[in-house]
Amino acid sequence: MNSQELRAVTWTAAAEGGRPALSLIDQTALPHTLERLAVTTVDGLIDAIVRLVVRGAPAIGAAGGYGVALAMAQAEREGWDRARLDAEVARIREARPTAVNLMVCVDRVKPRIGEGLPAVLAEADAIVREDLAANRAMGAYGADWLLKRVAAAQERPLRILTHCNTGALATAGWGTALGVIRELHARGRIETVYADETRPLLQGARLTAWELAQEGIPHYVQADGAAAGTILRGEVDAAIVGADRVAANGDTANKVGTVGIALACAYAGIPFMVAAPTTTVDLATPSGDAIHIELRGEAEVLEWAGVRTAPAASRGHNPAFDVTPGSLVTALVTERGVREVAAGELPVPGLSDPSGE
Ligand code: MRU
């Protein structure tokens, strides 16, 4: 299956037992097996989001949108009243705290509950359609910007470093940062991609490398700790990453390890690009300090494949994300274009500040 067909999140009107289900590519099983999980209950969906069966800010947003429909179907089967339905939808909204897309998408779909399931599904479908279109637009804008701004691109294809997985698996399809890379590859302008393995759950080594391999895009998987050295040795022309939340001042939360890449890019004088749809831009959050960073279980860093690797006495510190100051982001690409972020400015042209300032 190529990336054009890859859909991490789809709605199935009648899965096993005739129940409606959310069909998710099980990202915990990749790259070894490509299998789907049919989720039919709110508990099942929350478990899938927490275990990263479905992951990546726009993909969990899409899952949240359809999650409202899933909750309605369960309410119908189990005779929930409206208060119970609202409480279950709120649980979906809070399943992971950092990516704002989950909250934005649930909040967008929820007001349609009163109009019935078809209206709710139409809204969730629209989220998916718009995300796909946004990714295509970002890909083109990001590629154009890099080919114009990176001097090396005038002479040879580019060497791009990326972190985590921002591809079709993390979105409604195509991808954000990986969408820019795909677009560059389609134009014949990729020499190689350095895919950071992305500890501790290996979204880079397992998922990004799998997506790149599917399309024959040349790449290396490297340890996260190799990234700064690869950049400072001059082996990278630009870094492109996605985002889980971009605050009003341009501070960007993304997979843990991102800020170190941004610092290395600044030191080396190469672009650090963030590609994210406007659904990831949260003007109600003034700065990175106000972004809730998910702390995940200690076992993810103390064990390897279920076997304890750290001494029994060690504690694990496992923040899933970090915040890159907006001043380190050379360019923010959204579906509206590319914004070169200057510290203190609103990052997206045309979006207004809800505080009215
Ligand atoms: O914990 P994950 O795998 O959900 O983290 C995902 C990331 O940090 C991605 O870089 C981000 O969501 C952008 S996805 C287009």
Explain what this protein looks like in three dimensions.
By secondary structure, the protein is of the alpha/beta class. It folds into 2 domains: 3-129, Up-down Bundle (Four Helix Bundle (Hemerythrin (Met), subunit A)); 137-343, Rossmann fold (3-Layer(aba) Sandwich), CATH 3.40.50. The protein is 36% helix and 17% strand. It has helices at 42-50, 57-78, 82-93, 100-109, 117-149, 177-186, 203-214, 227-232, 258-268, 299-302, and strands at 9-12, 21-25, 36-39, 158-162, 190-196, 219-222, 238-241, 245-247, 252-255, 272-275, 281-282, 303-304, 307-308, 321-324, 331-334, 337-339. The protein has a 7-stranded mixed sheet with strand order 6-5-4-7-10-15-16. It has a 4-stranded mixed sheet with strand order 11-8-9-14, with helices on one face. β1 (9-12) and β2 (21-25) form a beta hairpin. The longest helix is centred in the middle third of the chain and has 33 residues, at 117-149. It is globular and about 65 Å long. The chain starts with 8 loop residues before the first strand and ends in an 18-residue tail after the last strand. Bound molecules: 5-S-methyl-1-O-phosphono-5-thio-D-ribulose. Residues 52, 55-58, 99, 164, 166, 170-171, 176, 203, 242-244, 254-255, 320 line the site of 5-S-methyl-1-O-phosphono-5-thio-D-ribulose. 5-S-methyl-1-O-phosphono-5-thio-D-ribulose binds next to α2 and β9.
In brief, what are we looking at here?
This protein is α/β, with parallel strands linked by helices and 357 residues long. It has helices spanning 42-50, 57-78, 82-93, 100-109, 117-149, 177-186, 203-214, 227-232, 258-268, 299-302; strands at 9-12, 21-25, 36-39, 158-162, 190-196, 219-222, 238-241, 245-247, 252-255, 272-275, 281-282, 303-304, 307-308, 321-324, 331-334, 337-339. The longest helix has 33 residues, at 117-149.
